[in-house]
Design goal:
Layout (H helix, E strand, L loop, with lengths): L6 H4 L9 H4 L12 H22 L11 H6 L2
């Protein structure tokens, strides 16, 4: 299965910025909503979420992961 050495992959850092709580109320139809006001709303949510995430996590970039993959993706 290829020539993958483990060392180059040991230092991979994972981060995740999400707005799950703000986007949770949106229905399936929002995926095809192209109204300008809705797109502006999504932009604003993304901007605010990213700004808050950076405020809390900027110091960790390049130093440590801020995403616990096991907790977020592997717990059942």
């Amino acid at each position: 299965m290829g020539n993958l050495e483990q060392k180059p992959y040991e230092d991979v850092l994972f981060h995740r910025i999400n707005a799950d709580e703000e986007l949770k109320p949106l229905g399936v139809s929002s995926k095809v909503n192209t109204e300008w006001a809705f797109l502006e709303h999504l932009h604003d949510v993304g901007y605010r979420t990213t700004a808050a995430w950076l405020k809390d996590n900027y110091r960790n970039l390049g130093k440590r992961s801020t995403l616990d993959i096991d907790t977020v993706y592997l717990q059942t």
